[in-house]
Amino acid sequence: MKIQQFAQHVQALQIREQRNEVIASNIANADTPNYKARDIDFNAALRGAQAGQLNGQLQMTKTSAGHSDSIGVGNAGTKTEFRTTTQPSLDGNTVDTDVEQAAFAENAVQYRAALTFLNGQIRTLHLALKGSD
């Protein structure tokens, strides 16, 4: 198993973390006049990260065949978009607290699932390296 196989999971966790921050910001600004709810398209962000479209990141160059491939860390090309609203409030705020709380909970569960999966892969690799006694 190459370390590069962990890259997708690391990127997914980073995007989930960024999405959690955006949704939390929406919830915090639920009463702010003219605030527009935002979100991150997780699938598009992950596709961009996998394609190597990493915004503002320093890409390392391999100078020897013995060097491992770099894994992109940080802003994985995520782009926030305005959330489509069903009914904006009179003050121009587009945050629907129920929608935001549901999105936050769903994203948190998906973050936890990705972390559990990654932990399982690391544990399997550790056992393979350690061998049986």
Describe it.
The chain has a domain at 1-30 and 37-54 and 96-133. The chain has helices at residues 4-28, 42-50, 97-130; strands at residues 38-40, 80-82. With 133 residues, the chain is mainly α. The chain has a two-stranded antiparallel ribbon with strand order 1-2. The model is unreliable at 53-62 and 70-76 (pLDDT under 50).
Protein topology:
Layout: H1 4-28, E1 38-40, H2 42-50, E2 80-82, H3 97-130
Antiparallel strand pairs: 1-2
Category from helices, strands and their pairing: mainly alpha
How are the strands of the largest sheet arranged? 1-2
Radius of gyration: 19 Å
Low-confidence stretches: 53-62, 70-76
Q: Give the total of beta strands.
A: 2
Mean pLDDT: 78
Elements, N to C (H/E): HEHEH
- Fraction of residues in helices? 40-55%
Give the strand content.
under 5%
What is the global morphology? elongated
Largest sheet composition: 2 strands, antiparallel
Distance between the termini: 22 Å
Discrete helix count: 3
What attributes characterize this protein structure?
133 residues, 5% strand, 2 strands, mainly alpha, two-stranded antiparallel sheet
